[in-house]
């Protein structure tokens, strides 16, 4: 018997499509209903066998589903939950893949009718591509997925969401929403703020009478790849995870100011210690990443 | 007739070895003498056919050379030029591959005896590997090489160094040392300062009772790859290019503070503009990089 009888996926792109693919491949879902606005993408999803059928109207699409997965931009999730709430079948579980959890979980929990359950989630996976064409069954294999239960979370619903992500191949970790938002602010949102600032600073530097970005080599391009990320998506993240992002931005600014002071006074020994400490941290995560993923499972 | 009769390479690693390989491959060098301290590396260089013979003593090794290429750490270059100066043959050209030019060129020009010539250079190429084993003939293919002549530079010596790098496949650009140091501070040194600071900040964050680096995914790892760079090498660069690095660090800090203010006041439209501007700059360099390299040649 499959884990899920009818799965409704709102937003059939890389994230939603990849979840559907792996659950179908494993025989853990009876039927998949895709919900979205773009007809061409949804028809392609049917052709590819990612979904069985689709609906444009979320309220219609979630009818009869025992699991709803929201894979839409973070700022749309609460509104969609509000829209679908009256149409949810008893016992239905709603979960999401949003990269910010505090605002979403606080907004969604009270919107879900009695007998239905909201469980916040965040699979830490992705590629630079989007749309259902880009989805693939192994996207979540060995990647972390953070689930953020609260004191209101139904235990059975939580277990089922955890199980769903484990079946997708993820290493599931549970933490509270505040910790989640700090962790992603540090490892994802802060690097984006830094990269966007760096590229603007260098790109607008006017001390050389020409755009010096043209001298950039592979290192600069690799380092700044994330500055090519979607401005609208990142605007929404910056607004939704503001407090944690500001905390991490200030933390970075402290370290950066410390390094600036060391460079300004030419303290070679302290500069070397600063760099060596960073290299040690960085090499540590790479070595950890090289461990078999099963060891990371908690 | 080859461009160079006897090439002495001080520091037979990735940079020096790759230059020797391509010049030999093109028949543009008569003999290559490797100079260094590590016997095993130099013997391996002979076995690989990168050099013909080697010497441990720089003064002995440069004897009879018409071109000397210094591919050693930036802080060692002036001392080595001082050491070899009395042993240089008349007409010998000394050039280097150091990633900082102001301090090096100012120190080396007066050290070179009359009739010999110093020309500062900086091939913008590299990989994460080091040692002669890592060298390969196409390292410089299509990459930029910045040559930094001064008012004292001999025209014939300059032409020969430019020709050497063009033969190696580089797109050679000439600029004054101050501009060079600003450009590399912006596109290379600043990103390193930022990456080292970021990894230290996140790695030492103590608000979650555990090391949150363990949650980092591929994006963080890619972004911080340069924080695994050699601390000693980067200490020397920070000391040697201090003024330009401080200028660029302050420029970055201005943009970063501006973004922080936008996030703090939740100005979504301005945040989006900031990100979109950055994306435009970043996409611009990637598109430029995709042009055939011959178009970039100046």
CATH class of the largest domain in chain A: Alpha Beta
Determine the mean pLDDT of chain A: 93
Distance between the termini of chain A: 26 Å
> Main beta sheet of chain A: strand number and arrangement?
8 strands, mixed
What is the N-to-C succession of helices and strands of chain A? EHEHEHEHEHEEHEHHHHHH
As a whole number of angstroms, the C-alpha radius of gyration of chain A is 22 Å
Write the layout of secondary structure elements.
The structure is a homodimer of 298-residue chains.
Chain A lengths: L3 E7 L3 H12 L3 E7 L3 H9 L5 E3 L2 H4 L5 E4 L6 H8 L8 E4 L5 H7 L8 E7 L20 E5 L6 H13 L3 E4 L2 H27 L14 H6 L7 H10 L1 H23 L3 H22 L3 H4 L2
Parallel strand pairs in A: 1-2, 1-4, 2-3, 4-5, 5-6, 7-8
Antiparallel strand pairs in A: 6-7
Helix pairs in contact in A: 4-5, 7-10
Structure characterization notes:
2 copies of one chain form a homodimer. Chain A is built from 12 helices and 8 strands. By secondary structure, chain A is α/β, with parallel strands linked by helices. The radius of gyration of chain A is 22 Å and the shape is elongated. Mean pLDDT of chain A is 93; it is low at 290-298. The longest helix of chain A is centred in the middle third of the chain and has 27 residues, at 177-203. Chain A has 2 domains: 4-175, 3-Layer(aba) Sandwich (Rossmann fold); 179-264, 6-phosphogluconate dehydrogenase C-terminal fold (Orthogonal Bundle). The interface between A and B is large, with 92 and 94 residues. Chains A, B: It is an enzyme of class 1 (oxidoreductase). Chains A, B: InterPro entries: 6-PGluconate_DH-like_C_sf, NAD(P)-bd_dom_sf, PDH_C, PDH_N, Preph/Arog_dehydrog, Prephen_DH. Chains A, B: Its EC number is 1.3.1.12.
């Amino acid at each position: 018997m499959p884990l899920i009888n009818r799965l409704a996926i709102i937003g059939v792109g890389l994230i939603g499509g990849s979840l559907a693919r792996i659950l179908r491949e494993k025989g853990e879902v009876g039927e998949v209903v895709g919900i979205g606005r773009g007809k061409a993408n949804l028809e392609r999803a049917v052709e590819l066998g990612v979904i069985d059928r689709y609906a444009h109207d979320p309220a219609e699409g979630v009818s009869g589903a025992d699991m709803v997965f929201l894979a839409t931009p973070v700022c749309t999730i609460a509104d969609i939950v509000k829209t679908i709430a009256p149409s949810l079948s008893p016992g239905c579980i709603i979960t999401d893949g949003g990269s910010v959890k505090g605002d979403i979980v606080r907004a969604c929990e009270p919107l879900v009718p009695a007998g239905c359950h909201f469980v916040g989630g965040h699979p830490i996976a992705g590629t630079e591509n989007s749309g259902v064409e880009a989805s693939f069954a192994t996207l979540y294999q060995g990647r972390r997925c953070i689930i953020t239960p609260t004191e209101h979370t139904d235990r059975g619903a939580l277990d089922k969401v955890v199980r769903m992500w484990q079946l997708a191949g993820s290493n599931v970790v549970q933490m509270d929403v505040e910790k989640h938002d700090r962790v992603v602010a540090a490892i994802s949102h802060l690097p984006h703020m830094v990269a966007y600032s760096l590229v603007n600073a260098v790109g607008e530097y006017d001390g050389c009478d020409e755009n010096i970005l043209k001298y950039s080599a592979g290192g600069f391009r690799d380092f700044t790849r994330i500055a090519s990320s979607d401005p609208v998506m990142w605007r929404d993240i910056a607004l939704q995870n503001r407090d944690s992002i500001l905390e991490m931005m200030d933390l970075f600014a402290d370290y950066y100011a410390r390094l600036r002071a060391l460079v300004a006074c030419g303290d070679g020994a302290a500069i070397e210690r600063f760099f060596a400490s960073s290299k040690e941290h960085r090499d540590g995560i790479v070595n950890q990443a090289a461990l078999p993923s099963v060891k990371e499972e908690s």
